[in-house]
Structure formats: C-alpha cells, structure tokens
Specification:
Cytochrome Bc1 Complex, Chain D, domain 2, alpha+beta, 10 helices, globular, 2 domains, 266 residues
Length: 266
C-alpha cells in the first residue's frame, strides 16, 4: 500500500518535477509578467491578482492549467500557452521567492508596454464607417464599432489589416426601462444611454518593436479615451495586448467577421 501511494504521488508530481531557476524566472517575469503582475508580483491594478509570495506549486498548477486551457481565461490562456514547463517552473519559483504585497505598494508599468502610439482619430463619425454593434448583458452596455477607410478596404479585398488601419468602439451604458432592465430597440440591441468611453485599436509601422513577442500583436497598439476624447488615465496597454493575442488569425480583433461582412455589402 505504501508503495502504491508513493507511485501515485510520483505520478501526480511528475508534471511539476522541473528544477526551477529563480534568476531565469526573474528575467521571464521582467519580460512578460511584470506588465500586469508587477516586477515583484505586486499587481499594477486592483483587478489583477498579486502573485508575490504565493506558493510555487500552486502557481505551477495554475499556469499549467491555463496553458492547456483546462482553466479558461481570455487574457492568460494565449500567454500561458507560449510558456514552456521550465518557464512555468522558473516563474513560479521567482514569485514564490518574493515577499508579497506590502501596504499599498504598486509596481510601475513596464515603460514599453504602458506606452501607446494611438491617438484619437479626428472626425470619426464623418470619415469612418459603422460596421457592427453589440449588446453586453453582463455590463449593461452597448457598443458601436467603426472602421476607417484603410481597414474597410483591406477587409473588402480579403487582405490582412495593414498599417494605418484603425478600429474604434463607442461604449455606451444601456438605457434602462421601468423594471431597471436594459431597453431594447427595434434591432434587438440595447438602446444607448450615456457615452462611457471610446476604445481604439490602430497599427503603424514599428509600433510593436519594443513589445515582447509573447505579448506583441504585430504592430497593433490600443488606447481608451474619455467622452471628451482625452486619454483615459491608468489604462494598462498589456491587458489589451494579452486579451487580443488570441485573435491572431482574425487580425487581433474580435469583430473581424462583422467587418468583412459589412465591407463586402454593397
């Protein structure tokens, strides 16, 4: 019986039997993880978990589950699948070696990840084409999507979206009815109420050159703007890059099929 227990334990631990290298983990964290989780595992935002001081075995299990998609997370799946098991072991060992979060300590963003080259496009209502709209029940929002002529022409001819392509989303709160539920229009979509912010993705030559490959979306950059068309503060570019990484076959956008359909409609 003891031998059986030992065999089972050995098989259970086998996937994580990697000799961890803390310094290699430190380098990988600085290149990839620090943009969201901080250089010492103290996250850069309230919505991102701290990893510093967490147990190495737990971190290995979670990263391995994210790598295999056994655990689903739209941001972490495409990142974890690019890590080797040695990378995972090293990252886990490094974070486990850190003291963890102090009082209100927050790590700085990596400069080349926090920076974005996207500016708000002038007169988008006059020069862009609306190609899609969608309701978001969990958020009680409705979003209207616009594409500039460069993106529209590429989609019309079946080409990948080139440098100069810009996609913009107007994000609205949904108008509520008398039961405090989102009201729907004749098109079945939520009726827009208040403009909350703009989300913009654009690409330009060399815009991705300073971004680590594991996060890079070719030369796409992302930005969010207030209703007054000013950059929203404290937006972490890395979260956008990680989320859109899974859409590499769709030009890194979640609305490519809708854009193609609209572009080809006479």
């Amino acid at each position: 019986m003891n031998r059986l227990i030992a065999v089972v334990a050995a098989l259970t631990l086998a996937p994580f039997a990697h000799a961890a290298n803390i310094e290699a983990g430190r380098a990988k964290v600085a290149q990839v993880c620090a943009a969201c989780h901080g250089v010492d595992g103290v996250s850069v935002a309230d919505t991102i978990p701290n990893l510093g001081g967490q147990r190495a075995r737990y971190l290995e299990e979670q990263l391995t589950a994210l790598k295999s998609y056994a655990r689903r997370n739209g941001i972490m799946n495409p990142i974890a699948r690019q890590l080797s098991q040695d990378d995972i072991a090293n990252i886990a060992a490094f974070f486990a070696s850190r003291p963890g979060a102090g009082s209100a300590t927050v790590s700085d963003f990596m400069p080349n990840i926090a920076r974005t080259s996207v500016t708000f496009p002038d007169n988008h209502r006059a020069t862009f084409t609306q190609y899609h709209a969608a309701s978001f029940p969990d958020l009680k929002q409705v979003r209207h999507y616009y594409a500039n002529p460069v993106a529209l022409q590429a989609a019309r001819t079946g080409k990948r979206l080139p440098d100069g392509a810009v996609l913009l989303a107007e994000v609205y709160s949904a108008k509520l009815d008398s039961t405090l539920q989102p009201a729907k229009g004749s098109d079945g979509l939520y009726v827009p109420n208040q403009l909350l912010f703009y989300s913009v993705m654009a690409r330009g030559s060399g815009w991705g050159k300073d971004i680590p490959d594991i996060l890079r979306n070719e030369d796409w950059n992302y930005a969010a703007f207030t209703p007054a068309q000013q950059p929203r503060p404290n937006i972490n570019h890395a979260e956008c890059l990680a989320c859109h990484k899974s859409q590499v076959e769709e030009n890194f956008t979640f609305t490519m099929k809708a854009l193609t359909s609209a572009a080809k409609t006479p």
